[in-house]
Each structure stands twice: as C-alpha cells, then as structure tokens.
Design a protein that fits this description.
alpha/beta, Rossmann fold, 14 strands, NAD(P)-bd_dom_sf
C-alpha cells in the first residue's frame, strides 16, 4: 500500500515508518522537524531511514532509494492549508497514519498556541485530505491523557473522557470527536489509538526514561514528581508499533470510528522503573523529591481487551527487557 505517515521524524513515527518500509509498503513521511526538542535527534532518525538530511533545514523535499525505492520524506507543517492538500493530490494515498502532534503535557502550559496549530488545525487538514481524496482509513494517535482524573482502573475505552486536565489532553480528545464526526458525515474509517507512556530506543528527550538516564550519566539529580507516588502503564515502542501496523494494514470493509488503548495492561510504580534504569546504568540516581506537576495524573493503566479482541494483539514487553534496550541504545548513541 501507499501510506502517509505524519510525524515520521518523531519517536513513534520513525519506528512505524521503518516497520512499514521493511514490510514492503510505499511510505511517504511528513514532519516539520520543529525545535520542541533537539532537531538533531530527529535528523538522526531520518538518517536511519536512508534520508540525506543536510538540506532539510531549508525545507527542501528529500527522497530516498533506501529499501527498494519505497520511502519519500517531505518537510512540511501540518497546518499548511495549501501544501497538505497538494500532498494528497500528488501521492494518492491508500491509508493515512497520523502520528504527528505537538507532544508533552507540561509544555502545553508554556506554549498553548502550538497545540492548537498542530493538534487541531493540523488534524483538520489531514481529515480534509482524507475526505477529498477518498482515503479509506485514517489511523491517528490519541493519548492516555484523555482519561484525565479518571479513578476507575484500568482505563477502558468505555469510560467517560470529558474531564481532561491539560490542554494537550483536550486537543487529543478533540481529535477523537473530530474523527467521529468525519466518519459519520463522509463514510470513511477512522481509528484512534490511545498510547500509554511509550518508551524505548530513539525516544523523546522530554520523556522520563530519557531524562533519568541522562541525569544519572551526568551525575545530576533526577526530578521525581509527586514524591515518587506515580504509576504508569509503561509500553515498549516495539509493542506500540506492532499494534499500529496491524491496524494500518488491515483492510476496512465498512466505515467505522473506533478507539483503542495500546498499553502494557499493567501499572508499574515509578520507583520500580527508576530501579531498572539504575541497574542498567550501574549507578544509583540522586533523587530530588517534588510535588505533582499541573496537568499530571497519578496513575495510568490500560484495559487493552478491545485491541486483543479485534486484532488478536496484546503488548507484553516487560520493563526489565524494555529499559535494558533503551539504556543500551542511549549508551551507544552518546558513546558512553
């Protein structure tokens, strides 16, 4: 198939593109390579996909012959209401995998405008592209943050999600509502994926595992919020990508709007996660105990039964395996 992957230079987008390329699909990757975190990491991910990145700072289109001539990368802002429609017109996609977004809960307190531009205006341009070019299936990234202060554990897609506690979460919930509306009005399938605390090699530098590992390596204290009383459904990147690619590559017989959790189906204490990092770094972390941050929630835990029922898939990588793989990559990438 010919598949558009937005956010292709991002953490999940890079891994998803790589998997689809290796499976023989023709992938067009889109990303604006913004400076939310170091663009060098994004460019290094693209280099892994065979892209010559030296001209990307100037907005030039780059194509690659890597993997049987089936990957093209385009530097573009999602909210560009002229360029995005032209992209759909040129490439005639079969499926769209929309993973691009302005990420981060805490950053949404500092720069709310970027979330509206990328996550709402950008999502609308993707929906319109799908509508006008007869795309049969749009798969898009949502987030476990939509559950807000939900106290029912584990989080089920049947639970109400109308009390988000960050602007980021509100934009992701808005995406689900927008997708539902477009499926209802224009009869193409949309599938939202609520990701739960994704980690692994090539991960984002603003994520806990990256911050902790980097601080330990530099003998600096790590910031442990809510005094360590946090639980997360840590989900390894390969498990996320397996779920995404199964859904993206499964033909849709009729137009439906579905939402699935993709998580490891267990809540792990933050302290246990830190211990695994310490073990693999062979060094104990200096800990700075801090109160919970605005927009954060104490616990996440995915009920993945719907994904297992519809796609016969259940993530199962343990944090012992996943953390080791991340730390091994981190040491190699920074030549420690």
């Amino acid at each position: 198939m010919k598949i558009l992957v937005t956010g292709a230079a991002g953490f999940i987008g890079y891994h998803t593109s790589q998997r689809l390329i290796l499976a023989g699909h023709q992938v067009v990757g889109l990303d604006n390579i913004n400076n939310y975190y170091a663009p060098s990491l994004k460019l290094d991910r693209l280099a892994q996909l065979g892209i010559n990145t030296k001209n990307l700072a100037y907005g030039k289109l780059e194509t690659s012959n890597t993997h049987q001539d089936n990957f093209t990368f385009i530097k573009l802002n999602l909210e560009d209401r002229e360029a995005v429609p032209a992209l759909f017109e040129e490439f005639k996609f079969d499926v769209v995998c929309h993973l691009a977004a302005q990420a981060g809960v805490r950053y949404s307190l500092e720069n709310p405008e970027s979330y509206i531009d990328s996550n709402l205006v950008g999502f609308l341009t993707i929906l319109e592209g799908c509508r006008k070019h007869n795309i049969k299936h749009l798969v898009y990234a949502s987030s476990s943050s939509v559950y807000g202060m939900n106290t029912k554990i584990p989080f089920s897609t049947e639970d109400r999600t109308d009390h988000p506690v960050s602007l980021y979460a509100a934009t992701k919930k808005s995406n689900e509502l927008m997708a539902h509306t477009y499926t209802h009005l224009y009869k193409f399938s949309t599938t939202g994926l609520r990701f739960f605390t994704v980690y692994g090699p090539w991960g984002r530098p603003d994520m806990a595992i990256y911050l902790f590992t980097d601080a330990i390596a530099k003998n600096k204290p790590i910031k442990v919020f809510n005094h360590g009383k946090m639980e997360r459904d840590f989900t390894y990147i390969d498990d996320i990508v397996e779920g995404v690619t199964r859904i993206v590559t499964t033909p849709k017989e009729q137009a439906t709007h579905k939402v699935y959790n993709i998580g490891n189906n267990s809540a792990q204490q933050l302290g246990t996660f830190i211990q695994e990092i310490e073990k693999n770094m062979e060094k104990e972390a200096q800990k700075e105990w801090l109160p919970i941050q605005p927009g954060d929630v104490e616990r996440t835990w995915a009920d993945g039964s719907a994904l297992e029922q519809d796609y016969n898939y259940k993530p199962d990588t343990s944090i012992q395996v996943g953390v080791k793989k991340f730390v091994d990559w981190f040491k190699a990438y920074y030549k420690l």
